[in-house]
Structure of DUF2093 domain-containing protein:
Amino acid sequence: MGSQMGGEARLRYLDADFDVLAPGSYVTCAVTGQRIPLDELRYWSVDRQEPYVGPEHMVKRDLGLA
């Protein structure tokens, strides 16, 4: 899962991993808009197919606060 050089990656989020659909070096947090390097990506929603900077942002999204 190492990051590749380039812009924003397109990923398919799975239960414990992700598939790279289009190579890139980062994804954008769905709540904050912050860039997340692929090698630091740890939190995402399989149902929503979106990444998060940290667990607090995932919870905010689940509660409808973001």
About this structure: DSSP finds one helix and six strands in the chain. The chain has one domain: 10-62. The longest strand covers residues 18-22. The CA atoms of residues 4 and 25 lie 5 Å apart.
